[in-house]
Write a structure and sequence with these properties.
This protein is of the alpha/beta class. The chain has a single domain, classed as Rossmann fold (3-Layer(aba) Sandwich). The chain has five helices and seven strands, in the order E-H-H-H-E-H-E-E-E-H-E-E. The protein has a seven-stranded mixed beta sheet with strand order 5-3-4-2-1-6-7. The chain is globular and about 40 Å long. 25% of the residues are buried.
């Protein structure tokens, strides 16, 4: 099966060596995705005019995000459904503005949303590390956990939905998150929109040499 991606391939694709053809990537049982959400797009959190304090605080715009962004419909169209195993886990990072869209994207990819993992960002003294936000100032990031088929966690003891740790550089996810994925979810592992290579994982993104080929239409 030939898969297509309506996006330009990363410029350093040629450095990736032997790529896994998209038609051969149908058995990933753990997929992590941190999409480049387009903050200029209207999301389910948009509504009444912004309060004055929100305007004064200001927000990152598409122009200064530092990387290309994607509409929710473009993210939904990615061929993740064809790349996932019949029984698999999905970890889909989202932002408050696009919580509703994240659920719809997971469904479009063939997964059932199950719960949300929350990364609570704290300072060294344990207090919330707050940045800008809608009405309330943001100190969290959320990861939608979804399941395809029947794939239980690989641990017998329970795992929480809340994890507290320090703030990372923009868009980078903490190391504990990847260790958690490897502990509770079976491989093979795929990270989409990856920013750096990770041992034991296949990766695809516009900042790395890719392991997975998703050809253009």
């Amino acid at each position: 099966m030939e898969l297509t991606l309506e996006l330009p391939m990363p410029s350093n694709e040629a450095q990736g060596g032997a790529l896994l053809a998209a038609s051969d990537c149908s058995a990933f049982r753990c997929i992590v995705a941190d999409p480049p959400w387009d903050y200029s797009e209207k999301g389910c959190a948009d509504g009444p005019p912004k309060p004055w304090r929100e305007i004064r605080l200001g927000y990152k715009t598409v122009a200064n995000m530092g990387y290309p962004v994607m509409k929710a419909a473009e993210i939904s169209a990615l061929p993740v459904r064809e790349m996932a195993g019949d029984n698999a886990h999905l970890y889909l990072w989202t932002v408050n503005k696009f919580l509703c869209e994240a659920h719809e994207i997971a469904k479009a990819w063939g997964f059932r949303p199950m719960t949300v993992l929350t990364w609570g960002k704290v300072k060294a003294d344990g207090t919330p590390s707050m940045k800008t936000g809608y009405y309330f100032r943001g100190a969290t990031e959320h990861c939608l956990f979804a399941v395809r088929g029947s794939q239980p966690l690989q641990v017998k003891h329970g795992k929480p939905t809340l994890y507290l740790s320090g703030r990372e550089p923009h868009s980078r996810k903490p190391e504990w998150f990847y260790r958690l994925c490897e502990e509770v979810s079976p491989g093979p592992y795929l990270e989409m929109f990856a920013r750096r290579k990770r041992q034991g994982w296949a990766s695809w993104g516009n900042e790395i040499a890719n392991d997975v080929e998703m050809p253009n239409a």
